[in-house]
Amino acid sequence: MNITLFSSFSPVLVVNDLEMARNVLIKDFDYFMDRRTFAMDHTSESNKIASNMLTMITGEKWRKVRSMMSPAFTSGKLKAMAPLIDQVGDEFVDYLGGLADKSEEFSAKEVLTSYTLDCIATCGFGVEAKSFKEPNGLFRKMVQKHSISSIVCSNLGESSFQVLQATGGDKGNRKQMINVMISMIAPSVSKALKLELFDGVSFTRARPILY
Q1: φ, ψ of residue 126 in degrees (nearest 5)
Q2: Per-residue confidence (pLDDT) for residue 86, from 0 to 100
Q3: Which of 6, 38, 141, 210 is deepest in the core (most CB within 10 A)?
Q4: Separation CA 83–CA 117 (nearest Å)
């Protein structure tokens, strides 16, 4: 049974039927390839870069970018990544072993985030993020500043206060969260105010890696 809910003022259909989900994601994907986009002003550098990400573009432009990325995920390329992922996996096991020896509690989300980040950094950018040894490292901090929009998406059913609480105590994160929420609720206001949806400083630091 499918469910209908509202995200801000827009109706959203949540597909629970497996056959319908298969049609949407595979058989009829050509009709459902576009993801939800955010209204953003393109004057800031961070918004310009973000608006060209695969998860933000739509239509024919999405097809072109997706076709350029596909060769990076062939079976041969994925096999070549396996030793790098194994290396991160060994560091993951060593880290968990250290926690077990100390009988220390830990956040599963934080630990798995570190593992995922290290895998992506190593395979995608050739960078050793070392998130387990350096949890407050610059690379990890910059990435965390870009994960704010995911907090919005994962808390769509919560109140605005609860969503803001999910950002933690960082004032910069809360400002970014508010900008994203305004973009979702009042797109015209977001464009008029030229709000940055992503942290400009972290984009500037990441630019040498991306280009």
Answers
A1: 65, 30
A2: 94
A3: 38
A4: 16
